[in-house]
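task queued by scheduler; priority normal; single chain, no ligands, no partner chains; default sampling; output format set to structure tokens
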Amino acid sequence: MIKILCVGKMNQKGLQDSIQYYIKQCPIDIEIIEVFDEATEQGKIVEGQRLLSKIKESDVVVALAILGKPMTSEAFASFLDEKMTYHQGDIVFVIGGSYGLSEDVMKRANVKLSFSTMTFPHQLMRLILVEQIYRGLMILKHHPYHK
């Protein structure tokens, strides 16, 4: 299973509809879990504790971070394949709030992944991530979606 932990609530229906479209298309289960947004620099510590409480020891944690490692869609597909094949836990992607992810969450992350050096709205990042998960799974199936 893939889990996406997010700080804050989704309140944009168009984005939510698009996210649900990709989730329904995916051949594996994807669960989105939201934690309350504290929206302060100090609050990200509390957000971090809430996020960490949703993560199991066996999970592979991927923190989305501007300073993380960039990947092509093909490399991301290979990453998903390797984690789904050889690891017992879930793959857990973590999207922080407006102040980023806490130091504790970053320390727990097995991988720090960057989609861009640009900053994206957190709700839009959910859609981008879900689409890339779908794309990665289609690459693994040699489906023409990626072309």
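post-processing summary
- The first strand starts at residue 2 and ends at 7.
- The beta strands are 2-7, 30-35, 60-70, 91-95, 111-114.
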